[in-house]
Amino acid sequence: MINLRDKGAEAWAKWDRPRRVVFVIAAISIVASLPFAGNFSVSNILNTPVSSYADVLVYPVGMFVLMSLGLNIVVGKSGMLDLGYVAFFAIGAYSMGVLGTHTHLNMWEILPIGMGLAMIAGVLLGIPTLRLRGDYLAIVTMGFGEIVRITALNTNKIGGPNGIANVPNPPTVLGLHFNIMTPNSFFWLVLVLILLTIWMIRRLSVRRPGRAWEAIRQDEDAAELMGVPTLKYKIWAFVLGAGVGGAAGVVYASKTLFISPEAFTFNISVLILSCVVFGGIGNIWGVVLGGVFLAYLPERIRFVTNARQLVFGLTLVIIMNFRPDGILPRKKREKVLAPKGDSGEKNV
C-alpha cells in the first residue's frame, strides 16, 4: 500500500496542471455519483440492511468523514488529543434546532451562525486548557463534551431530554430539494463541505499555520524556544476544527428533523477519533478512508445483530495489528545520510 501511495505521488508530481485538473474533476464526479451506485450494484452488495444506502452515505459516512477532517486538524496536524469533539457537533446541531424552530432563519443563514458559535466555544475551551498536554488535555476535553451534553439534557428551554422536533429542512437551492425523500441532495451538500475543508487544510498546511502545527506536533518545547507562538496556533487549530464540527451539526439537524442529547454521546467522539487513527493520523486521504470504512462497516453488517459490535471490534484489532500507523499513514521524512567516510571534501 505504501508503494502504491508513493507511486501515485510520483505520478502526480510529473503531471502538468491540465492533467491534474481533469483527474480531480473526474474523481469528484465519481464520488458525487455514489448515491446512484446502490441501484446498480451486483446483488445489492452495497445496500445496507436497515437504513437505505443513500441515507447511510449522508449519515454516518459523509458526516464522519467531515468531522474526522475537522478533528484531524487538532489531532493529526497539531498533535493534541481531543476526546470531546462531539461538543462542537452538538453546538452546531442545537443552533440549527433552536434558531430553526424559533426564528424565520433558514439553514443557509443558520450555518455560519452555528459554525461561529462552535468556534467561540473552541476559543473559550482552548484559552484556559491548551496549556495542558497529553492525558490532561484529553481529560479536560472529554469533560467539556459531557458538560455540553448534560447541559442540553437539563435545559428545558432547548427541549431537555425530549430534544427538539420539527427542525426545518434547508430551502431549495440550485434546483436541489432538501427533504426526507431526497438524501442525494444532502449528500452533495456534505460533499461540498468536505471538499471545502480539504481545500482549507491543504492551503494552510503549506503556509505558516501548517508549519507551526507541524513544529508543535513534533516538539512543542523546541517550537516555543524557536519563537513559535504555540498557544496562538493551538487555539487556531481548535477553532478551525470546531468550525467544521459545527457545520456538520447544522446539516445533521436539518437532515434528521429531530435532535436530542442522546445523539451526542462520548461514543461519537471516540468513533471520530478512531477514524483519524485508523485511517492515518495527519494524512487527509487516510482520514477520509478511515471515516468511510468505520462509518459504513457497522451499517453494512447490521444483519449480524447482537454480534455486530464484536465483528466491528475484531476487524479493528486485526487491521491495526497489521497497519499500526493506519491504513494510509502520513509519509515520514527520510533522513539524508552521507555515505560512510565522506567528509564532504574532494579527494586529492
Element order: H for helix, E for strand: HHHHHHHHHHHHHH
Q: What is the count of DSSP helices, taking H or I runs of 4+ residues?
A: 14
Radius of gyration: 22 Å
In terms of DSSP E residues, the strand content is under 5%
N-to-C terminal Cα separation, in Å? 46 Å
Query: What is the share of helical residues?
Result: 55-70%
Q: What sort of overall outline do the alpha carbons produce when their principal axes are compared?
A: globular
β-strand number? 0
Mean pLDDT: 88
Q: Which spans have pLDDT < 50 for at least 5 consecutive residues?
A: 333-348
Biggest sheet descriptor: none
Assembly of the depicted chains:
single chain
Structural class: mainly alpha
Describe this structure in words.
The chain has a domain at 58-265. Helix content is 67%, strand content 0%. The chain has helices spanning 2-14, 17-32, 37-40, 53-77, 86-102, 107-129, 134-154, 183-205, 208-218, 220-225, 230-256, 266-279, 284-300, 308-322. Mean pLDDT is 88; it is low at 333-348.
Write the layout of secondary structure elements.
Blueprint: H1 2-14, H2 17-32, H3 37-40, H4 53-77, H5 86-102, H6 107-129, H7 134-154, H8 183-205, H9 208-218, H10 220-225, H11 230-256, H12 266-279, H13 284-300, H14 308-322
